[in-house]
């Protein structure tokens, strides 16, 4: 029955990236009188089920809010339970999970893992490393994550890049910032679902969800969430899909002609592009040196003036150089060890 | 100078020893080595069922897959694709019957798809009918658009426990038509809507009202809007002695936010005072006002954050700040200097879409959206949102 419904849904457009705020596990646990801890386990089972459904449909990325930095404020025993759960389930996911093997899911852990205990961090590292090569789908576990931390982290790393003179302030654009977030190798978020009837985002994927994203607040606890509750959301998304795609294009255009189009093929071609860019910019540089040497007798000044003159007179050269500089910066720094870049199929 | 050349990075990432051999070596040797690597790659694939591609729609998947393997810098791209093609032929040939069944089933699935959507549409229309009926009986409860502050106060009720101090509203498309010209009537309607919202908000006691629109507002229009709001406020409060003052503004350029932070830091250091100074630092334009109306456009969202990084980067180059100084708290003081965090967000659009509302600020905002925008008056939604907000409890992660 479910498989048939999924096949039917596939006639329309399928979201590429779904975000889930799994809220209401404890309240559900209390509701069915099994306690908080059991509630979390039930919640995990639901996650597995929904993940399987999403994969079967062909969703590329599923991002789940497992633990917020704010959640450290909870009673210690509850935090402990969650850590234990995360540890066992992550190990299980990367080693034995049939789902992960079958759909080639790469596990990513988004968030400030330095806040976690050592043993949990070790498991995370292992899970990420083991599934690093899986490039057909991504499961993003936000653990411990807040969107403000993500934005701060990205800002800090870009500013440090400027400080180290790897980047120019003029290189920074909205798309560059987007590429330095934890979700850098994921397509833009299409659907964000929050369960338990709350109507706020609680610091989850603020950047990703605030434009061209279908947000849904569902009035049931997370363990009660099933495919049949997902179905109407998907139908509503399909009705909106065209307008979402259109507004995304508008945003892309708004970023100006200088900006590179955020295209899937762009990412694939990036590496070859960089080489070409470097070659051409080198040629141009050489040509320029000769030209300017003819013009001015002081050859020492030439190198200093180079950057400025290039920007003014050769609109093509600095643009390619900029592109290359940005992409090499984004590729080489290793501040996101738990989110290796992958090119999704 | 820029980072190491991409070619060297390619090699480093590829990790295969064969790539590191000098180019002037014997070609035979190279061939042997490449053969060796191809074999190991094939073995790797056999071991890793996760990387193995699904070969259902063979023709379609082949090309993107081979290109993506190059992109992911697998050591031997060519051998990889060769193995995929061979598996394609072996797996797809016996499944001709299943393929025929699949093709036969397609219309059936499509029919089901249509039925699902129709059913969904039906449910939505049923819900719309229900709200229509409700709206029909509304005038007995409260007016569709009250014109006096007394009425709003009565409708909201005295016993509302929690009221937002900052209300955000996202409005429907306005201003520019398809041809790119400013549509006068639509713009006018938008102004009227803002004026109304300002009236109601001031009656409830909201301090800040931020309104999101699709296009940036003209500075000339800002003046006109200010006049209009002043005018309507007078009408609205004609029974009262004092008319509250509303000030309309847009966000100040991001460049000013940093100096504000420095000011605050300095004053904090000097006086050792609490960080509450931040609110007083807002320039009031020489006027005291009761309601602060901020008009936002999509450029104030994501682009402002990027602009902020440019600004911080320049400051870092001037050695005013270091990158270690940038913490969540730092960014918050800087970004919230001009716009506080809204507590309630009402979306006056058909779809629940955050339309690039400044992402930093909507962390804990209650988002209210009524699915039947077309049939329900704005005032009703306004009241519903306030009541919904009063009921909400925030646990702040606990």
UniProtKB/TrEMBL annotation, chain A:
Membrane topology term reads: Peripheral membrane protein
The subcellular localization recorded is: Endoplasmic reticulum membrane
Q: Which gene encodes it?
A: RER2
Q: Which domain of life is it from?
A: Eukaryota
Q: What is its EC number?
A: 2.5.1.-
Cell inner membrane keyword on record: no
- Reactions listed under catalytic activity: n isopentenyl diphosphate + (2E,6E)-farnesyl diphosphate = a di-trans,poly-cis-polyprenyl diphosphate + n diphosphate
One Pfam family recorded for the sequence:
Prenyltransf
Which cofactors are reported in the record for this sequence? Mg(2+)
- Please name the PROSITE patterns in this protein's record: UPP_SYNTHASE
Write down the PANTHER family for this protein, in alphabetical order: DEHYDRODOLICHYL DIPHOSPHATE SYNTHASE COMPLEX SUBUNIT DHDDS, DEHYDRODOLICHYL DIPHOSPHATE SYNTHASE FAMILY MEMBER
Question: What GO CC terms are in its UniProt record?
Answer: dehydrodolichyl diphosphate synthase complex; endoplasmic reticulum membrane; lipid droplet
Principal location class: endoplasmic reticulum
Keywords per UniProt: Endoplasmic reticulum, Magnesium, Membrane, Transferase
Q: Which family does it belong to?
A: Belongs to the UPP synthase family.
Report if keyword Membrane is assigned: yes
Molecular function terms in GO for this entry?
ditrans,polycis-polyprenyl diphosphate synthase [(2E,6E)-farnesyl diphosphate specific] activity
Q: What does this protein do?
A: With NUS1, forms the dehydrodolichyl diphosphate synthase (DDS) complex, an essential component of the dolichol monophosphate (Dol-P) biosynthetic machinery. Adds multiple copies of isopentenyl pyrophosphate (IPP) to farnesyl pyrophosphate (FPP) to produce dehydrodolichyl diphosphate (Dedol-PP), a precursor of dolichol which is utilized as a sugar carrier in protein glycosylation in the endoplasmic reticulum (ER).
GO BP: polyprenol biosynthetic process
User: What does the record note on quaternary structure?
Assistant: Forms an active dehydrodolichyl diphosphate synthase complex with NUS1.
Q: What protein name does the entry list?
A: Alkyl transferase
Q: In which pathway does it act?
A: Protein modification; protein glycosylation
Automatic annotation (TrEMBL), chain B:
Is Membrane among the key words of this record?
yes
According to its UniProt record, the EC number is 2.5.1.87
Keyword Endoplasmic reticulum (UniProt): yes
Q: Locate the region Disordered.
A: 1-39, 59-93
Q: What are the Low complexity biased-composition ranges? A: 75-93
- Enumerate the cofactors the protein uses: Mg(2+)
Q: What pathway is this protein said to act in by its record?
A: Protein modification; protein glycosylation
Q: Which enzyme class?
A: transferase
* Cross-referenced InterPro entries: Nus1/NgBR, UPP_synth-like_sf
Reaction catalysis annotation: n isopentenyl diphosphate + (2E,6E)-farnesyl diphosphate = a di-trans,poly-cis-polyprenyl diphosphate + n diphosphate
GO cellular component term, pick one:
endoplasmic reticulum membrane
The superkingdom of the source organism is Eukaryota
Q: What is its main location?
A: endoplasmic reticulum
* Gene Ontology molecular function: ditrans,polycis-polyprenyl diphosphate synthase [(2E,6E)-farnesyl diphosphate specific] activity
Q: Where is the composition biased (Polar residues)?
A: 18-39, 61-74
Q: Which UniProt keywords apply?
A: Endoplasmic reticulum, Magnesium, Membrane, Transferase, Transmembrane, Transmembrane helix
- According to its UniProt record, where is this protein located? Endoplasmic reticulum membrane
Family as reported in the entry's similarity comment = Belongs to the UPP synthase family.
> What is the protein named?
ditrans,polycis-polyprenyl diphosphate synthase [(2E,6E)-farnesyldiphosphate specific]
- Protein species of origin: Mortierella hygrophila
